[in-house]
From TrEMBL:
GO terms for biological process: amino acid transport. It comes from Marinobacter oulmenensis. It is found in: Cell inner membrane. Residues 2-242 form the ABC transporter domain. This is Cell division ATP-binding protein FtsE. The lineage of its organism: Bacteria, Pseudomonadati, Pseudomonadota, Gammaproteobacteria, Pseudomonadales. InterPro entries: AAA+_ATPase, ABC_transporter-like_ATP-bd, ABC_transporter-like_CS, ACT-like_dom_sf, MetN_ABC, MetN_ABC_transporter-like, NIL_domain, P-loop_NTPase. GO terms for molecular function: ATP binding; ATP hydrolysis activity. Pfam families: ABC_tran, NIL.
Length: 335
């Protein structure tokens, strides 16, 4: 478990302390995939770099598995850093070393593993990230997705319990992003690793994270399970991220709303209710006529969800809303 207790960070700029993270308290549970989403400069990297002490905090305490890491000595820090792996947007591989040697590098650096242990671990990791046949290639001979797989294998070399991912898929195309996110999800499930993942894309959060913190100007402005934050965003910054991820043009949407008659409702279906043929029966029972203004069905991690915006005319609207709510469908009145 990672606990932030009133943690803050300021950078010295021109002799002045400029805050990058205002006092923040939060808990990241062991074994979860925790997303941190925010625009450029929001403080995401700063927050994550405090977890492995790449940056020292300037106030508060960070407890990892009940140990305060903020006062670790150099020796304690060296041992601690083996427990925290990290992957980066631009992979940060050593270009003069082969794939196998890149993966072996942190183990060699640690100086506590035998040559046999290192060889066996590298073989195991090459298989884990499906790169056995690329072991002797150099980074320049690999695709972006393969490079990030090497980055992941290298980060796992010393068997960390926490994996930090700093915009790990931002340099990858959508298909490669999907396969890297799947790999991270598998690693989380199979190894029970805690993953903290920074991104500026809500879609990445939706696919792989259990909980998410939304950051804006050095503060966490919203935090919770991804399904709550994604389906019912409260803060304007979160709403912007959700709209962006759905590729919704808000002006176009408003125009559509203006053309539509009657009441406009936004329905959110989650889990099993996503597949129920509810609209027809509600329309029959309540006598309400409806037209669909927009809709989508997708997944939040493994849970299906659907969102429909309807305009409803005539009939008994109250009865229709009751029927939706009885079927566990969240109803938001747009107009
Ligand atoms: N080493 C530094 N010295 C001075 N200011 C810094 C330093 N690192 C970050 N900052 C400032 O702290 C703030 C937060 O930066 P940070 O990199 O944590 O944001 P971010 O959300 O990760 O942004 P990005 O997505 O662009 O990486 C920014 O205003 C940035 O300019």
């Amino acid at each position: 478990m990672i606990v932030f207790d009133q943690v803050q960070k300021s950078y010295q700029v021109g002799g002045e302390a400029v805050p990058a993270l205002h006092p923040t308290s939060m808990t990241i549970e062991t074994g979860e995939v925790f997303g941190i989403v925010g625009h450029s400069g929001a403080g995401k990297s700063t927050l994550v770099r405090l977890i492995n002490r790449l940056e020292p905090s300037t106030g508060g305490r960070i407890l990892i598995d009940d140990e305060d890491i903020t006062h670790y000595s150099h020796a304690e820090l060296r041992a601690f850093r083996r427990k925290v792996g990290m992957i980066f947007q631009h992979f940060n591989l050593l270009s003069s070393k082969t794939v196998a040697d890149n993966i072996a590098f942190p183990m060699k650096l640690a100086g506590i593993y035998s040559a046999t242990q290192i060889r066996e671990r590298v073989d195991e990791l090459l298989a884990r990230v499906s790169l056995v046949d690329q072991a002797n290639k150099y980074p320049s001979q690999l695709s972006g997705g393969q490079k990030q797989r090497v980055g992941i294998a290298r980060a796992l070399a010393c068997r960390p319990t926490i994996l930090l991912c700093d915009e790990a898929t931002s340099a990858l195309d959508p298909q490669t992003t999907q396969s890297v996110l799947k790999l991270l999800g598998d690693i989380n499930r199979e190894l029970g690793l805690t993953i903290v993942l920074i991104t500026h894309e809500m879609d990445v959060v939706r696919r792989v994270c259990d909980r998410v913190a939304v950051m804006d100007a050095g503060r966490v402005v919203e935090m919770g399970p991804v399904s709550d934050v994604f389906l019912h965003p409260q803060h304007p910054t979160t709403r912007d991220f959700v709209f962006e991820s759905e590729s919704v043009d808000r002006d176009e949407l408003q125009e559509d709303y203006q053309k539509a008659e009657g009441r406009i409702l936004r329905l959110t279906f989650k889990g099993e209710s996503t597949y129920q043929p509810l609209l027809g029966s509600v329309a029959r029972e309540s006598g309400v006529d409806f037209s669909i203004l927009s809709g989508r069905i997708d997944h939040i991690k493994d849970t299906p969800y659907g969102q429909l915006t309807l305009s409803l005319v005539g009939g008994d609207l109250g009865l229709a809303m009751q029927a939706f709510e009885k079927a566990d469908v969240h109803v938001e009145v747009v107009r």
